[in-house]
Design a protein that fits this description.
about 65% helix; single chain; 8 helices; globular; mainly alpha
């Protein structure tokens, strides 16, 4: 039985959240989650890159690499496609949203090495998703990643004036919050699970 793209979309947002279930993309997740607008901007950029790269990577894999017997080159091809998409998005953001561009700083080009984006491309191949399933998985993963980083940014903003023990300030409390968020998202796992 083939899984509906809608089920995959919902599951990739909540029950199989890329950051809270697989812990992929933690570097920028922790570093850029200090303020909600910046976190939301990065989340949108990640979602756009996920959608674009999943389309191109799916087409390249199924219509170029497989027919030519070159599927062993998928890692290299996927990384090149991701890098090109991020470069294009970076130029667009710099041109039209300069405030977001400067707020994201080095983390915008680092989307290229965000393992969540590479993970989505690999999961769609490993799970043998169709084109629509792959697109739903990519968009859902981006939305889920955005939801998680914005939630973390909101919590971190509330904690700015909270009495946190000295040893837990910074990354320590951020990792604890991320763990608690992951536990909360596990509550959705009874609804639907994709593999």
């Amino acid at each position: 039985m083939e899984i509906s793209p809608w089920v995959i979309l919902f599951a990739s947002i909540f029950t199989n959240n890329m950051i809270l279930s697989n812990f992929l993309g933690m570097c920028s997740f922790i570093a850029v989650s200090r303020e909600i607008p910046t976190a939301f901007g990065l989340g949108q950029a990640v979602t756009i890159v996920l959608a674009i790269t999943s389309i191109f990577n799916y087409l390249l894999y199924h219509y170029v690499l497989l027919p030519l017997g070159l599927e062993y080159l998928r890692f290299i091809v996927f990384i090149i496609c991701i890098a090109a998409s991020v470069q294009l998005l970076e130029m667009i953001i710099e041109r039209f949203l300069p405030n977001l561009y400067y707020a994201l700083g080095i983390f915008l080009p680092l989307i290229t090495v965000n393992c969540a984006i590479f993970g989505v491309s690999l999961f769609m191949i490993i799970r043998e998703y169709s084109f629509l399933q792959s697109l739903a998985f990519a968009v859902g993963s981006g939305i889920g990643w955005t939801l998680a980083i914005v939630a973390l940014a909101g919590i971190r903003q509330k904690l700015k004036n909270a009495p946190i023990p000295k040893g837990l300030e910074g990354p320590g409390i951020t990792l604890i919050i991320t763990g608690l968020m992951a536990i909360a998202f596990i509550g959705f796992s009874g609804i639907v699970q994709i593999q």
